[in-house]
Design a protein that fits this description.
Number of domains: 1
Distance between the termini: 38 Å
Radius of gyration: 17 Å
Helix content: over 70%
Mean pLDDT: 90
Largest sheet: none
Structural class: mainly alpha
Low-confidence stretches: 189-197
Number of helices: 8
Strand content: under 5%
């Protein structure tokens, strides 16, 4: 397997897009064959503003605060995923971060909550979601964080039966943390340049 430093930014973007596109296609095919688009829409999609604000935005922001708080409390190497997230998010513009994070949230939540959790339950969807994020398996804290985040998203879906709620929560989590990672890396680089002058 190639080291993250040997992968070009364009290859990395294409790889992320392709993996999410595959998840999206698998989700759509699974919905078509096992649930039905009409049933999915009528049972699991609701533009309930109170639910979106309270559960979607609220849980997304709480997960962001917990993640950033852990970054300040635990050593930096605890969250090192081999440089993938740092390289990926620092290479994106703000609009690219938003677009990628929206596509990731929609594709993953359609598959993991909309299909897998609906058919097999929260435990199975949480385990599969965590295993799909395989680059975190070697770091216990990262693995545990993804496991908890997945369970929270699964619980939100169980409670609200609304895919839009978990999509909003997942999107906020990824977009804010991606933006935080992008700009905190720039701040660290600027500070290191000032210190070395």
């Amino acid at each position: 397997m190639e080291e993250i430093n040997e992968i070009s930014i364009n290859q990395l973007k294409k790889s992320v897009f392709l993996s999410q596109f595959i998840i999206f296609v698998v989700a759509l095919l699974s919905i078509y064959f096992f649930i039905g688009f009409n049933k999915m829409y009528s049972q699991f999609i609701s533009l309930n503003i109170v639910e979106l604000a309270l559960y979607g935005f609220g849980s997304g922001l709480i997960l962001v605060i917990l993640n950033i708080g852990m970054n300040y409390v635990l050593p930096e190497e605890t969250f090192d995923d081999g440089g993938f997230n740092k390289l990926f998010f620092t290479s994106l513009s703000y609009s690219e971060i938003l677009l990628f994070c929206l596509f990731i949230a929609v594709s993953e939540e359609l598959l993991f909550r909309g299909v897998i959790q609906t058919k097999f339950g929260i435990l199975i969807s949480t385990i599969i979601f965590t295993l799909v994020h395989f680059r975190y398996l070697k770091k216990f804290i990262l693995f545990f964080v993804v496991l908890i985040e997945s369970f929270v998203l699964g619980y939100l879906f169980l409670k609200t039966q609304n895919l839009l709620v978990v999509i909003v929560s997942h999107f906020l989590l990824d977009a804010i943390l991606g933006t935080y990672l992008k700009y905190s890396q720039h701040d660290k680089q600027d500070w290191n340049e000032i210190k070395n002058e």
